[in-house]
């Protein structure tokens, strides 16, 4: 049975083939302590596979067996993951936004605009709209040239910025934008610069930001009408759509000045999670996390903003199946550290967006990490406030040093 990372683990050459075909996984587990029989595993499997086995979590309690699809993090089958699997192209989507993008997205989320626009802008940032270049990337067989101007490949940058219809629309709109200014900037950076500019100059109720997003939306809608319904797709159609959209948003926002628009308070992927009893942000004791995952894993934490504990660190080393697994262990270590010192309010900084995503999930089904995430959540409840926040890598420098030392030298710093 291929039970280790989708493969059958390799048996050491000094083992006899006959009996090895009858080994069962349960033979390698201590039932009482829910842990691997490390010596037996090392004795029977080659070093690399033994390592992989020992890094796997053993469930603490007996549970019903269930089907697990190994190619989505949720463990549930989806057509698109099956498709990717068949084409042997499966890779976890690692496109993450940088912190400037997150600031811009969060700002969009707080605007009093149509919710569909928010998701639209969010999808642009994740390059998640079905333009031809993205379809081809997903394995669809079609030509990628823009069928309006024929002058470039149809990616989002083209549709929303460089296509002749987009260029003319931006130039003649009330915003008077020349989309070829800063031509080398990727679309995300270009969008972000206008979002931040309009917001800083006009504030929350400025019309320019709204017009900017409405024009993006109109370009996209008119492109779709052209591609799917064969409509002309000229700038005239873009402006008609724009007018129509601005009316819609006018109706939508009238009488809504007081309360912000419903729906999730943070854009998907905005990285913060409260696991304490009070779901509030705490600015007192801060603790940074980091991990090293090259060969032997190491993880560490460092207190960064508290006079009493300033500069204190803790770290450990051991096995982890992935960097997020190691980061989760760092998080658990930090919570244990704080709990032992009777600290009730804590903010934990991590540069791992994946860790935050796992902590956000109601039920984690990724079997490689479910135990550690469960332990973190259980421990989090003991704190009055406990927030895990995504921060840039450079902010967790000190913890990173600790993790490196623990990984290389095999330290444990309690
Ligand atoms: Zn074009």
From TrEMBL:
Annotated SUPFAM superfamilies: Ribonuclease H-like
InterPro entries in the record: RNase_H-like_dom_plant, RNaseH-like_sf, RNaseH_domain, RNaseH_sf, RVT-Znf
Residue ranges of every copy of the RNase H type-1 domain listed in the record: 292-406
Transmembrane segments: none
Domain Reverse transcriptase zinc-binding intervals: 77-170
Superkingdom: Eukaryota
Name of the molecule in the record: Reverse transcriptase zinc-binding domain-containing protein
Organism, as annotated: Spinacia oleracea (Spinach)
